[in-house]
Amino acid sequence: MSGGEAWRGNIRARLYERVRARGHDSLTAFADARPAVPLYALADELGGDDVAAVQVLSALLYEAEQRKQVTRFVRDVLVRELSERFPKGWPAMLDDAIRGEVAMALGSWSAYTPDTHKERVRQARAALRASPPPPGWRPLGPDDELLRTILPDEEA
Questions:
Q1: Would the keyword Hydrolase turn up in this protein's UniProt record (predicted)?
Q2: Cα separation of 128 and 147, whole Å?
Q3: Is residue 52 a contact partner of residue 62, using CB atoms and an 8 Å limit?
Q4: Are residue 87 and residue 112 in the same domain, yes or no?
């Protein structure tokens, strides 16, 4: 992204115009067709210079709230964070550097989590630290069995 183009004009209209041009009726459908692709890569695909990852994140959250699927959105964000940090799956060795990367991934996930789900994410992070996934584990989407175990759907 260069020069602030992503913040000019009608951001939402631009996002949805680009999503429809790619054959999808929602940003969620566009993202679901690209499981485990990091948010910045989704933004790049939608526009590069005039779409920011945070705009994609915000629109995905909006759609999730409308569909009452915020927990699924939260799991999806974790999948995308893990994919970005650990493209070959969960690391076998957790030395200091790798533990730092895990902390960064989980920290970003927490930061991107809406307030309504902060406590549940805190508990899920604790569960992942207490019982790490097997080496090579790479969730390919928000419906991954392990993720649904530590963060089950409980929409209001």
A1: yes
A2: 10
A3: no
A4: yes
